[in-house]
Amino acid sequence: MSSRILVLYYSRYGNTRTMARLVARGVEQHSGAEAIVRTVPPVSPDTEASQPAIPDQGDIYAELDDLANCDGLILGSPTRFGNMAAPLKYFLDGTSSLWMKGALVNKPAAAFTSTSSLHGGQESTLLSMMLPLLHHGMVFAGIPYSEAGLTKTRAGGTPYGASHWAGANSGQPLDEHESALCQALGLRVALLASKLKGSP
User: Fold this and answer.
1) Domain extents in the chain
2) Is domain 3-42+54-196 classified as CATH 3.40.50.970?
3) Tens digit of each residue's pLDDT (9 = 90 or more) over 116-159
4) How far apart are alpha carbons 129 and 172 in whole angstroms?
């Protein structure tokens, strides 16, 4: 029985998108797991819809059915003042219909983030993404210290989820430990999803 893991992210400068690709690679290291990568549109500065229904490039926008039909969810967002970015929060605020049906209850979930400064709120951003997932009844998974990268990293990487230090100009690439921890996070959620579904 295959597991569909939704990797849902918002990215402004491309770092969170790169992380999403690595997380998805980790998901698909587990036999029978499929990574579904989706993004969300930026928040419109006016009261009228101003984004196309399908983005001009990159990943397609998520719909509520993507969440309802997934077996696990991994959220990604850049840090905004120690919190998740508004576009991802806006999308999650629109998931009340799923909450009322319990559509995400007992499914595994995790989070990842990118920030320009080393101590710019990586962990608090991950915690902010955890809150709506817990309200949905999901089983939140961090990264265990059995992953060697957590004790070797000199940039991003936390037990609360994968993270990346992108530098002041957001141009610093992921290092080997950050990349490995992204993949480890994806693999862990895929493993948990298969166990929670009763697959071998």
Assistant:
1) 3-42+54-196
2) no
3) 998 989 999 999 999 999 999 999 999 999 999 999 999 999 99
4) 24
